[in-house]
Predict the 3D structure of the following.
Amino acid sequence: MHVSFRRFYGNAFLISSLLFFLAACGSSKSAFTESGQGSYYADKFAGRATASGEPYRPGRLTAAHNTLPFGTRIKVTNVRTGRSVKVVVNDRGPHVKGRIVDVSKRAARKLGLVQAGVAPVRIKVIK
């Protein structure tokens, strides 16, 4: 069986690059933190499918983040009040410039976000 030099080394490079990338992602996500503006989902989205396929349930502790994998548990802290909540990422978003996370209504109540609508938050991956 003949395998060309270019094909063999091209595939080897691709595989080693992929493994390096996955290793780097795995180690950085465990210490991932981010600060910015946080908001919460409007009631009109209740029951609609999230990007993960789960329906949005306002009474659950969930969140939308643009890059973290679905199922990632994060701690969201309202910087103004110091209140925090642990949520699971099950959607993509927010889709508003400057915002880093959208949380469910239940999580928003725990954070004190319902009245403000938007507040400075810090997120940290916990699992």
The chain is about 25% helix and 30% strand.
